[in-house]
């Protein structure tokens, strides 16, 4: 079963702006494409996967173009280290 998400779960990749329905509709009318990202996997499921010895962390980010691109291009591993490694060290 797919999780339910709404506009507040969608972000503009370049600015990390959290969308509303009005802003989403506004961006859809623009002549250029806007890259977006969404977060819909429950935090508990991510933590469970990271604890498994069968898990690996990877990224399908495609690099940056003039300093812009999808957050996975530069943020996957820093997020892993900051959110999950540092968090687990401080919670011991």
Chart the SSEs and their pairings.
Elements: E1 10-12, H1 21-28, E2 36-38, H2 43-51, H3 72-90
Antiparallel strand pairs: 1-2
Task: Give a structural overview.
The chain has helices at 21-28, 43-51, 72-90, and strands spanning 10-12, 36-38. The protein folds into two domains: 1-40, no CATH class; 42-92, no CATH class. 1% of the residues are buried. A two-stranded antiparallel ribbon has the order 1-2. The chain is 39% helix and 7% strand. It is globular, with a radius of gyration of 16 Å. The longest helix is centred in the last third of the chain and has 19 residues, at 72-90. It is mainly α and 92 residues long.
What percent of residues are in strands? 5-15%
Mean pLDDT over the residues:
81
Distance between the termini: 34 Å
Radius of gyration: 16 Å
Give the ordered list of helices and strands: EHEHH
Helical content class: 25-40%
Shape: globular
Number of strands: 2
